[in-house]
Design a protein that fits this description.
Blueprint (H helix, E strand, L loop, with lengths): L3 H23 L35 E5 L4 E5 L4 H8 L4 E3 L10 H6 L7 H4 L6 E8 L4 E4 L6 H6 L8 E12 L3 E9 L4 H11 L1 E2 L2 E2 L2 E8 L2 E10 L14 H7 L2 E5 H5 L18 H6 L7 H14 L1 H8 L5 E11 L3 H11 L5 E6 L18 E11 L8 H12 L3 E2 L9 H7 L2 H11 L8 H7 L2
Antiparallel strand pairs: 1-2, 2-6, 3-6, 4-5, 4-6, 7-11, 7-12, 8-9, 10-11, 10-14, 13-15, 13-16, 14-15
């Protein structure tokens, strides 16, 4: 029998969906349908429309958590910060918790999410049991792996809102202990593939279990893998939400212990290492910067403000410095090609450090719009920052070279940031013909923006 809180949550959710459908009806026929959403974790700018959008303001919560079944019903715009707050008291967590607190569950499923559990748990959409989707036709349908809307279920991941928006998702949950014990293991670049492959295959390293796995390449000659293990007890835990900075501890401490909560959000406080661009890692600035504002969404807003007003760019030009190209990407590289790609990247782009996160699809089937090969181990390489635009070069040239290199090394690139592919290449890499077939069924009047238009032409 459902609890009173579950019933209350379901009623509130139904009312929120009703409000969403009403907002759809208010959008003039023929006008494109978009979310009326102010915040985003995307780095793809787009043309802003001064038109009504879908009201998702009440689709931001957790409907219910079932600790016995280890499942949760969650609204599409619920952030992982709020989702984790609801599951941790039960000793549970989503199978994959992306690194940044304000990423939404719906966003991670219709886009791409990854974290240190992905070497065993795959990607966020692989733990979805069913989901309700508002389609481009204005209908709310329930999609499952089998049944009438199985085609929509399979095509939804990496569709980025081109097929509709998730209003409710039922997901599997994973057990997590109160603490996570860490080992930072230094590895040679040529040894990485073998070490990662062994950990993925056995789930152990040095005789101890490995429940979480990621790493940082500070340079081609200084690479660390961080191995996390669930732990029920700890005599001391570290705190990287204050003056200490997590990524620097990787070079300084061979072992560490964090609470489960702090482990899941270890990267958010400093947006990995990107807070340095705002001075937030300077001791004096850090002391004065309020802790509640030392988080990724605040830094993202600062970047958005700069993109709109170009204050720093104008100042650099006055000082005679070259303009800079934004290079913010996450790419999946087959583990056997990792060393070669990292050497190419360091020599041709030169950004340091970069994040490494091994992953393998949890299931035996590929997903149509992000065709990773089942059973194969990949490593997500994340790099985020800017590089100077060389004399005679154009903005975007470095990103184009990276896209070509990713293809040359047999990899794949996520679409949350800038993309520069031509239409033919994009359609081939992201299986757009298959997407088009499903889109014709669920968005017959093309109310939702196409994937190429969203990812490349920024409409």
């Amino acid at each position: 029998m459902p609890s009173t809180s579950d019933v209350t949550g379901t009623v509130a959710h139904d009312q929120a969906v009703g409000r969403l459908r009403e907002s759809y009806q208010r959008i003039p026929r023929g006008e494109p349908v978009r979310l009326a959403k102010r915040s985003s974790n995307l780095f793809r700018p787009r043309t802003e429309l001064d038109r009504p959008g879908l009201d998702v303001s009440r689709l931001t919560g957790v409907i219910s958590v079932d600790p016995a079944a280890r499942t949760a019903d969650v609204q599409g715009m619920c952030t992982y910060e709020d989702l984790v707050a609801a599951t941790l008291p039960h000793g549970l967590t989503p199978m994959v918790v992306p690194q940044l607190k304000t990423i939404t569950l719906g966003g991670a499923v219709t886009g791409l999410g990854i974290e240190s559990s992905s070497f065993r748990a795959g990607l966020p959409h692989e733990s979805v049991l069913e989901l309700d989707i508002l389609t481009g036709a204005g209908e709310v349908v329930t999609a499952r792996p089998t049944g009438e809307h199985a085609d929509l279920f399979r095509m939804f991941p990496n569709s980025y809102g081109t097929l509709g928006y998730a209003t409710r998702l039922r997901i599997e949950l994973d057990r997590i202990s109160p603490y996570v014990a860490l080992r930072h293991v230094r590895a040679g670049l040529d040894d990485l593939a073998a070490v990662i492959s062994a950990i993925v295959a056995d789930g152990t390293y040095g005789g101890e279990p490995v429940h979480f796995l990621d790493g940082v390449a500070f340079s081609p000659s200084e690479v660390y893998l961080t191995l996390g293990r669930n732990s029920d007890a700890a005599t001391r835990t570290s705190d990287y939400t204050g003056r200490q900075i997590y990524y620097r501890s990787i070079q300084q401490r061979p072992k560490d212990v964090l609470t489960a909560h702090d482990y899941l959000w270890r990267w958010d406080t400093d947006w990995f290492w990107c807070s340095a661009a705002f001075g937030a890692q300077q001791p004096v600035v850090r002391r004065l910067w309020p802790r509640r504002w030392r988080r990724s969404d605040v830094f993202h807003k600062i970047v958005g403000f700069e993109n709109r007003h170009q204050f720093a760019a104008k100042l650099n030009r006055r000082r005679g410095r070259p303009d800079r190209e934004r290079v913010v990407q996450d790419v999946e590289i087959p583990v056997g090609e990792l060393a070669g790609f990292l050497r190419w990247f360091d020599a041709n782009v030169g950004m340091r450090p970069v994040w490494l996160c091994p992953l393998r699809l949890r299931g035996s089937e590929s997903w149509p719009l992000y065709p990773l090969r089942p059973g194969e181990i990949y490593v997500n390489v994340g790099f985020w920052g800017t590089v100077p635009i060389a004399p005679g070069a154009a903005d975007g040239d470095v990103n184009r070279r990276i896209e070509q290199a990713v293809a040359d090394f047999g990899g794949h690139k996520s679409l949350y940031s800038d993309a520069y592919y031509d239409r033919e290449t994009f359609d081939r890499l992201y299986n757009v013909p298959a997407l088009t077939t499903v889109k014709q069924r669920y968005d017959p009047n093309a109310r939702l923006t196409g994937l190429y238009e969203k990812a490349v032409t920024r409409r």
